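Methods — Computational structure assignment.
A single polypeptide chain was analysed. Its primary sequence is given first, followed by the predicted tertiary structure written as structure tokens.
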Amino acid sequence: MEIWLIALICIGALAVILFLLALLCYASAFFKRCDKNPLLKYFDAEDFGLTCESVELNRGKINLRGFVYRNQRVDDNGKVIIFAHGMGPGQAAYTTEIAYFCGLGYRILALDSRGCGLSGGKSIRGMYEGVKTVEAAFGYLQNNGFGGDIYLLGHSWGAYSVLCASVSADKIIAISAPATPVKAIISGAARIIGPLAYILSPFWYLIGFFLFGKNG
């Protein structure tokens, strides 16, 4: 057998191994649900004297659920904040922050993204799902006749989501946003597999493209 053919087979085999390893890392991060940790205490609306109206909408085959929060002891300023949560069990982990902005007179629309908390889906699937959740929340407000200012607020994964959402928001607040999904994966994986995380990064770009097209 020609040496060049042997080399080509070896390179191909190495590429397959690296892709499978990248897929395993991606799956461990995103191909799972994120629900409440039974060992932790999560605050709810009643802990802060907030009222909450249940919201449920469909994005394709996925059912998204959440709440519109409000502090009735404070004058409503006529503005709504769409809150996008970070990695974890959804908006339930951010009730303290939601209560703070409700105390300033905002109404807060907080939906759990696919695979998180109250929403459907067997897994998160990927970071771009958060972007779709923000867009779905924005559409919900428009479809229900809301004509006031709409602000977007997100932390971590949620910050990435509000920055990438294709909506005409009046203001955007992004706290600790990762630059790209791949850089977010690298920062987490590098603590476990070291420099190999950087070698796998092209394959993570490829997986993201397969799942979400160029937006991935």
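Note: The first strand starts at residue 51 and ends at 59.
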